[in-house]
Each structure stands twice: as C-alpha cells, then as structure tokens.
Amino acid sequence: MSSPSSRRSSLYQALLTALLTPALLPATGHAQVFPSDDEVRQNIQNARENQERQRWLNEGAATLPTVHATGERESDIPSEQTRSYTVPRSRASTGLSLSPRETPQSVSVITHQQTTDQGAGSLTEALQYAPGISSSTYDSRGNAFRARGFDIDNLRTDGVPMAISGPWSAGESRDDTILYDRIEVVRGATGLLTGAGDPSAAINQIRKHANSRQLTGKVGFGLGSWKERRLDADIGSALNADGSVRGRFVANIDRSDSYIDLYEKRRNTFYGVIDADLTPDTQLSVGVSRQRDKPRAGMWGGLPTWYDDGTRTDWPRSKTTAPKWSHWGSTSKTWFATLKQRVDAWDIRLDYNRIQNQADARLLWATGNPNRTTGLGITTSGASWYDIDRKQDQIDLQASRPFEVDGMHHELVLGASHRKLDFSAMSRSPTAGVQESLGDFNNWTGDYPFPTAWGDPFVSAASKTTQNALYGVARLQLSAPSHLILGSRITNYEQKEAPTRWRSTGYTIKHDRQVIPYAGLTYDVSPETTAYASYTSIFKPQTNQDKIGNYLDPIKGKSYEVGLKGSALGGHLQTDLALFRIQQDNLAVADGANLVPNTTSQAYRAAKGARSTGYEITVTGALSPVWDISAGWTQYKIKDASGTVIGTNHPRKQLKLFTTYRLGEELQGLELGGGVNWQSEIHADVDNLVTDAAEQIRQKSFALVDLMARYEIDRNWSVQANIYNVFDKKYYDSVGFYNRYTWGPSRRYLLTATYRF
C-alpha cells in the first residue's frame, strides 16, 4: 500500500503537470491555451481516483486466498466489517475453510452490505436476489423456497440444521435479518453437513457476534408503505477493561399493515451475545435470541379461482378470505454456546444449539365458488385452532487442522453430531357458534364471528426424530494447481410417529449407517481461473411401505456439478459458470394392486425418481472501488421418471441483478442502486371445480424492478430510500395450491434513517 507522502507526491505531480505542460509544448501559430480551474480540479480528482483504485487492487491481491487453508479465523471474518458483496472464505459447503474458487460447488453469499442495500428485513426479502432460489407465498404462514427444482426443507444457523415444514410452519422463514451477519447459500445436495433432506440447497444464516472492544453501534428508524414503522438498535462494547470479554445487544420492533386487506404485521426481535477470549487459544460465545410474530387477520390458503359459472376470478391484490380474528402467530427462541480451542495445529469447535419454534393459529378455511354478481357461495368447512411446538437440540463437535506431506499442503476436518427434534401439533375444532356462509364475498369485510365453543385438544401430528452422525472431509493437494476433496458422513436416523386423531397406531422408521459420500476436484487453469467438478449426495426417509410391510429405503438425492470459477480485479470480483445434474432414486411408486399386509393401504416399490439438469452463471463483487454487483442467471429442466415435466409452479429461468454505485465529487456521500428480478412462466394444471374441465392457472414471465438511494450525511448519519416493484406489476406469487392463487405485493416504499456511533 502506498504511503501518505507518496500519495501527496502523486497529487502534486498531477497538479504541476496540468500547469506546466502547456508552457512546455512547442510554439504554434495559435494562442497558448492554459488549463481552466475545472480542468485542474479534474486532473487532481483523476489522480486521486487512480491512487484509490491502485490501493483497492493491492488490498484485494493481499487478501486473495492462498493455495492451502490457513485456519478457522479467516472464515469467521464478519462481512459487516467490509462494504463488500463477497467474503474471502466460507465453511458452508464442506466444513473446510475454503475460498469461493476452492469450493467445488455453487456458493452464494448475501453479505451484510447487500442486505442493507436491499433494505431486506427478513430472510425471504434477503433471498429475493440470491441466484437460483425461488420462493412462493401460499398464505400468511411464510414462504416456501426451492432450488434446482426441489424444495428446500432445511435452514441452518451457524451451520446447525433446522427442519422447516410448510403445512406446520412455526415462523422458521420469518427470521429478521438484524440477527445475522450474512446468509450463505450452497446449491445442490448438502448431505455432508445437513444430514437428511432434499437435493436442493442449504441456506446458512451466520449470526452477528460481539467483535468490538469499544462502544459502537447503530440505531435506525424506518417508515414505509402500509403504515410501516421499524425501529432497530444494534449495540456492542467491551465488558471488561482489556476487551477480552465483549457483549452485543440487538433489538427490532416492526409494525405495518399490508397490501392485503385487514392483515397487520407485528414483530419483536431481541438478541444478545457474549464473546470471551478466555486465553489466546480459547474463545467462548454464548447467546440467546427471541422473535415474536403476532400478525392479525392472516389468510389461510389462497383466493378462489372460479366463479360459480366456471369463469375465472380476477380479485384485487388486496382481497382476503380471512376474518378479523384469524392469525398465525409464532415465537422463535434460541439458546446457543460455542467453544473454540486451538491445540497445537488443531482447531477444535464445540457447538450446542437449542431452537424452539412455537405457533398459535386461529384460522378459517373458506371454500366454494362465489356468484359474480351477488358474491354468495363462499362457505367454510370450519374454523381451526392449532398449537404447534418444534424443539430441536443439536451438539456438534468438530476438529480441523492443516498438515503438510512432501511439501504439499492439506487440510482435514473430523466431526460428530447429535440432533434431536421433538414436534407436536395439537388441534381443536369448534362445537358451537359456527356460521357456514361468509355472505357477500364481493364485499367481504372480515366480520365473521369467532366460534363460541371449542372441543378438547387432540393430536394432529407428533414425532420424535434423532440423527447421530460421524463425518470427515479432507482437502488434498495433488500438485501445485490441483486439489482433491474427499468426504463422507455416516448417519443413524430414527423417526418415531405417535398415534393421532387420523391414525390409530404409531410407527417407527429407522435407517442405520446411511453413508453420504462427497467428492470434489479443483484445478487452477490460471492464476485467476479454476475448473472444478463435484459429486454430492443426500438422503430423505419416506413413510411408504412395500408389499411385505417394510418401509422403503430413503430417497437418494445425487448431485453432479462441473464448472469454472474466476476472480478478477485483485479478487474483488468473483464469477462462476456451473453445469449441474440432480437425480433422485428410490422414489415410491404404486406397486400394482398389492396392499401392505394386514391393511387396506396401497403398497409401493422403489423406482427412479426426478431428474433435474441445468446451468447457472453468477457474477458477484465489485467492478470498481465504488461499484458493487450481484448477478445470476439460472436455467434448468426437471422431469419425473416417466418424462413428465413436474414442478411447473416454480420458474425454470431466473435472472437476478442488484447493483449499487457510490458517486463522488460534488455528490460525495450519495449512493444509487437498484435491481431487476426476472422469472419465466409458472403454471399449475388443475381441474375447474365447477365444470371439471382441465385448465391451467398461469403467470407469464415478468420482471420486478427495485430502486435504492442512500446519502451519508456525515460520519454518523445516513438516510436510505428503497422502492420495491417500481412499476407496480400485478402478478401471481403462487398458483395451484389447493387450486388457488395468491398475489405478489404491490409497489412499496421504505425510508430509513440510521445513526452510527
């Protein structure tokens, strides 16, 4: 990096050059032209920018990943300490501390800076610009995510998997981004670290930690469309004289109405963490978080698709089926502790996490087809009262170390984990005060009476799931430019389902010694380009039985990927071209007329499952010291074993682009940006509930445009404005869920003022 004196010297040289060059030119018949004041200022500005760019490139080169792993602490650098859209290293794919080019899988990171620029307040909003990820909102419960044609059924927090379930959602996809430093997305099968699941992607949320030895923090206040009011506080400080013990407290209060009639969002989030350096080689982190979502007038299911004459409805985006008293509230509580210990060359990490998600729902299911003129015809099959409880405990022990053999650098990770999930869903049905008709649905106001009496609670679902695993992975240097990654996980899986109102007996699914292999190869084609190939896998237990009565083996998800990764501009810009193929095996299909012994249940056999093939192109990072970008193109096809196209309710093609640019000179402190989110057509093949004719509920391809601007008033104060869906595009967010549809949000504004200290 150049010294201050050398930078001043360069500026003086630029000034002297601007002043003296005309005097030194050969004489001509024309009058001598001297530089204007504006030209002098521009020459000085150009020299300053050249100096800044060179410093930026040098810093990028200085932080380029080395050929061999250099320890755990590099992958723990918080993204909030930079203004970058990239991170130098990550452990999300294999547990190894790898740079993006060293990772033989597609990995995207939504950094703290990108989340801030997007104005994203929730996980769903943050993932809007994550390459390859699509989401659907079926009703007020939350969002369902999908990648490469398969559902994402696990979230991870600091690497700890957390099961999510759409039908019994307890707020897992509603986490506020104020809790997290960044969000990592690994696409493809991720069984090495996740265990059971689908071969889609892993979403890993990395918590904020107490890194500051001085009193620092920020307070933010936001106002937006639909009466949104948002208050944030994030404060950290040393808790003792030398700063070896530090604390951080984060809080958020969020209130708003909605583009949907009657719906109100109410969210409170609190998080506290203490990080302590017990010795130079020992670090301890303990923390707790609590988030309470208590929305009002939550809709259950989508909107009716047909009138009673069989013609299509086209409700306004504000339409709802919810009564005023309905809600799907949730409370998420987390307790965690992490102990890191360095012993000689070994980095040892012990994690404990307790995650409890609870939901309390009072809902009304509206059904039927209204009359176009009178609005009559919508009835209810009854109100429902649900109490959902999901407790997850996980202990994970991991040890890693670099080692050298014959001058070649290698790294090894060994781990063991224990994961236990207790889940229950209790239900109640009304016994009195149920009004069958919703009346004139065209003029629905939500004035539907809450049932006056309810029956005793009964079990709708209850299970206990345990996963115990051992895993290991090694990165071996074969030559200066080539590395081989080999790993495996051995999992014992047991799921016990209790009897319910709908099932008189329980059952147990047990799969021991499930082996999940991992293999990857990287080759540095040049100092800036790496070719890679990988094979990863995952398994998912299933509850279907064969004609003998045995439960079928788990569904196997296998992911193959090859590609090229590059870095440019001193490592500040990262690119990835990936070709992938995902296949499922052991998928249950009906076994003719055979029945499960001693039952009337259909027997099944294992068969080849779905096949997904496609490619992705991503560009992430900085094009200059003042220009950041995150861009991705995804395209894939998915068919079942018979060749039938499936999963058409999610887009096959996506283009996601978000970029920001910081202006200079007279506009110093101003940053402008925006994004484009384009997706191809989605549709659902359904039967018209009135005429029984086959139809499609279709949303044509469309693009959403977002804009942002931020102005740094001084070193403490900044204001930011975000506009979402600038052109107010009306579009289906989901189609076909119980033959219904939901609308995406209309245009929305958010203005935020932030004070940093």
Please explain how this structure is put together.
By secondary structure, the protein is mostly beta strands. It folds into 2 domains: 1-62, no CATH class; 204-319 and 334-382 and 397-756, TonB-dependent receptor, beta-barrel domain (Maltoporin, Chain A). The protein is built from 5 helices and 38 strands. It has a 22-stranded antiparallel barrel. The longest helix has 26 residues, at 37-62.
Number of domains: 2
**What are the segments in which pLDDT stays under 50 over at least 5 consecutive residues?**
1-37, 61-72
Q: Return Rg in Å.
A: 28 Å
Beta-strand segment tally: 38
Q: What share of residues are in beta strands?
A: over 45%
Could you describe the largest sheet, including whether it forms a barrel?
Answer: 22 strands, antiparallel, barrel
Mean of residue pLDDT values: 88
The second-level CATH architecture of the largest domain is Beta Barrel
Helix segment tally: 5
Give the CATH topology of the largest domain.
Answer: Maltoporin, Chain A
The percent of residues in helical segments reads under 10%
- So what's the overall shape? globular
The SS-based structural class is mainly beta
Concise synopsis of the structure shown:
By secondary structure, the protein is mostly beta strands.
Helices and strands in order:
Elements: H1 4-24, H2 37-62, E1 107-110, H3 112-118, H4 123-126, E2 133-139, E3 142-147, E4 150-151, E5 154-157, E6 160-163, E7 180-187, H5 191-194, E8 201-207, E9 216-224, E10 228-238, E11 245-256, E12 265-279, E13 282-293, E14 327-343, E15 346-368, E16 378-405, E17 408-428, E18 430-432, E19 453-454, E20 458-477, E21 482-497, E22 507-526, E23 529-540, E24 555-568, E25 573-585, E26 587-595, E27 602-607, E28 611-624, E29 627-639, E30 653-662, E31 670-679, E32 682-687, E33 694-699, E34 702-712, E35 717-724, E36 732-737, E37 740-743, E38 748-756
Parallel strand pairs: 5-8
Antiparallel strand pairs: 1-7, 2-3, 3-4, 5-6, 7-8, 9-10, 9-38, 10-11, 11-12, 12-13, 13-14, 14-15, 15-16, 16-17, 17-20, 18-19, 20-21, 21-22, 22-23, 23-24, 24-25, 25-28, 26-27, 28-29, 29-30, 30-31, 31-34, 32-33, 34-35, 35-38, 36-37
